[in-house]
Amino acid sequence: MNAPVKPSNLIKGATGEWEMVIGIEVHAQVTSNAKLFSAASTAFGGDPNSHVSLVDAAMPGMLPVINEECVRQAVRTGLGLNARINLRSVFDRKNYFYPDLPQGYQISQYKSPIVGEGEVVVDLADGTSFVVGIERLHLEQDAGKSLHDQHADMSAIDLNRSGVALMEIVSRPDMRSSEQARAYVTKLRTILRYLGTCDGDMEKGNLRADVNVSVRRPGEPFGTRCEIKNVNSIRFIGQAIEHEARRQIGILEDGGSIDQETRLFDPDKGETRAMRSKEEAHDYRYFPDPDLLPLEFSQSFVDALKADLPELPDQKKGRFIADLGLTPYDSTVLVSEHESANFYESVLAGLANARRDGKVAANWVINELFGRLNKEGVSIAASPVSASQLAAIIDLIGEGTISGKIAKDLFEIVWTEGGDPRVLVEARGMKQVTDMGAIEKVVDDIVAANPDKVAQVRAKPQMIGWFVGQVMKASGGKVNPQAVNDLLKTRLGL
Ligand code: ADP
Ligand code: MG
């Protein structure tokens, strides 16, 4: 399945319409305690060069030893991307010189990656979805870091990251707008987080994207692409694509042609600039690393990992829709962050009748709770209203003890003062009036006091809303609106 081509995806140029084509290579740091080929720690933020083994520093004669945990994580990720797992893959040397690459080569996988074709279902803000094909996922080492701000006339090298395992996840050129590209990286990151194979922290550089952009006339073959390297936020991915596509359109409309080149995005200026052209592209002289045997494992190794995968966002979404009747939109909101989904599921677990009230609970979690948390800038983890408190509020509505309106007041009290919702409802007299006699009295008083309105409502039955409102007001919102409605109809002879 290809990305949908909606008219809104096309860009208007001076000479007609253009379509963007986007493919993304994501570098995701593998969540593991030790590096890909050494036992040094992968912990973030240590003193420079404090997590460096002799292998990571490329001392002569050192031998890499594959970290099985990184292999497991790559396979689990491949399974999460519905991808083909290759039982045999090969580590190659990708040769180039860089001051923070002491080996003089990166160990990577070239012709035979550990994971082959897969796909990601991407959700858009309007509730629709589309599919992005995955070409491959391979394992490789990260490089160290050059620090240029430590000394006036020298650069310093920190090798803490040297040798940390990365997964390079290469998409097919299946995206047609910056919105789709942002949504793809967002979804990929969500999947990695559910799997626990990469924390997706873009600020720390644990997930970064090389974004390939080309433009074409709708229906024409793909154009020449430029690759924007190392974009490290979702917002910047969108900005870089928008700028780059317009730059290319400008050149083509002026009668020029696009040079295939590598570019960098400058977030301060919001533009991309050339880094190197194809002619300057490295010849990496890939060859199989003679220090490492081909990586081989059995289908049963894969099957065991598969059996152990957690429920992933798409499955969770499907379950929310099928079992609880949630809308696709609400389900997407709830599953998009693992923490949100966990909170919602804790609310469900606390409900007396989750099947009946699951949909109401979704509304409360999304609109009342997340809305409020967002407004106040509070994280879910620090929510003043716990999942069990929210479940109690929803139970009180479901069983008819309080009205939806009173529930909002109760939510407010729990948010600011805390407390057991059930106890609060008792103590503050918030219970819905179920005594029909009492409701009848209020209804009769209002009917008696407003003969003019009674005459009006007989002519115009929609006016009943006015009466319902008056009764709700007189009772402090503590009567069931449906019961009032029914009663009014009989009393007014409607
Ligand atoms: P390379 O081997 O030079 O890195 P790949 O074929 O692996 O090239 O492609 C790298 C990335 O570029 C992939 O994510 C792919 O989807 C994307 N890509 C390929 N062709 C185009 C194109 N014409 N426009 C935009 N992206 C493209
Ligand atoms: Mg590539």
UniProtKB/TrEMBL annotation:
SMART domains assigned: GatB_Yqey (SM00845)
Matching InterPro entries: Asn/Gln-tRNA_amidoTrfase_suB/E, Asn/Gln-tRNA_Trfase_suB/E_cat, Asn/Gln_amidotransferase, Asn/Gln_tRNA_amidoTrase-B-like, GatB, GatB_C_1, GatB_Yqey_C_2, Gln-tRNA_amidoTrfase_suB_CS
Catalytic reactions of this protein: L-glutamyl-tRNA(Gln) + L-glutamine + ATP + H2O = L-glutaminyl-tRNA(Gln) + L-glutamate + ADP + phosphate + H(+); L-aspartyl-tRNA(Asn) + L-glutamine + ATP + H2O = L-asparaginyl-tRNA(Asn) + L-glutamate + ADP + phosphate + 2 H(+)
Stored SUPFAM superfamilies: GatB/YqeY motif (SSF89095), Glutamine synthetase/guanido kinase (SSF55931)
Top EC class of this enzyme: ligase
One GO MF term: asparaginyl-tRNA synthase (glutamine-hydrolyzing) activity
Asn/Gln amidotransferase domain location: 342-492
EC id: 6.3.5.-
Presence of keyword Ligase: yes
PROSITE patterns according to UniProt: GATB (PS01234)
NCBIfam families reported for this sequence: gatB, PRK05477.1-2, PRK05477.1-4, PRK05477.1-5
Function: Allows the formation of correctly charged Asn-tRNA(Asn) or Gln-tRNA(Gln) through the transamidation of misacylated Asp-tRNA(Asn) or Glu-tRNA(Gln) in organisms which lack either or both of asparaginyl-tRNA or glutaminyl-tRNA synthetases. The reaction takes place in the presence of glutamine and ATP through an activated phospho-Asp-tRNA(Asn) or phospho-Glu-tRNA(Gln).
Self-association and partners: Heterotrimer of A, B and C subunits.
Protein name in the entry: Aspartyl/glutamyl-tRNA(Asn/Gln) amidotransferase subunit B
Organism of provenance: Nitrobacter winogradskyi (Nitrobacter agilis)
